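Annex B. Sample input.
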Amino acid sequence: MIQTAINGKLNGNIGIKGPTASPGITWKLSNGTARTHGSLGIESDPANGQQKLVFDTVGIEAGQGSLTAQGYLELFKDRLLKLDIRSQAFNPAHIDPKFPSGNINGSINLAGELAKEQFAGKMRFPPAYSTAYRLTAMPTLFTNPATFRVP
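Annex B, continued. Sample output.
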């Protein structure tokens, strides 16, 4: 398990609505230097015994920057995953000073099958910087249990 303690306090609200088989969860929280908001839900198909975790909107605003994500994870069969992440002038240090500071711009598009451990994705980072890493890339990633390559 990876976890990071964040000192201070969070203000805001978290809401849960809908039936227990397919609840919807929304939140809007702030720690004073960063804000997060979002909604996710579980879509259920009781006839087929299938569920899907849907990230309608997940966002973080820190200073003048933002990070957003949308996607889904099917919780049956091959466990298909699709996740799209975008950042604009995002500075992780606004969340916690222990994180590297920077100005991260770019996108990550990831899709795959968790059951087969096969993923494909694209990352696009026009010139951006972080105190820990230089971020300028446009690779396409493919991975499966036998190989990992960046063309």
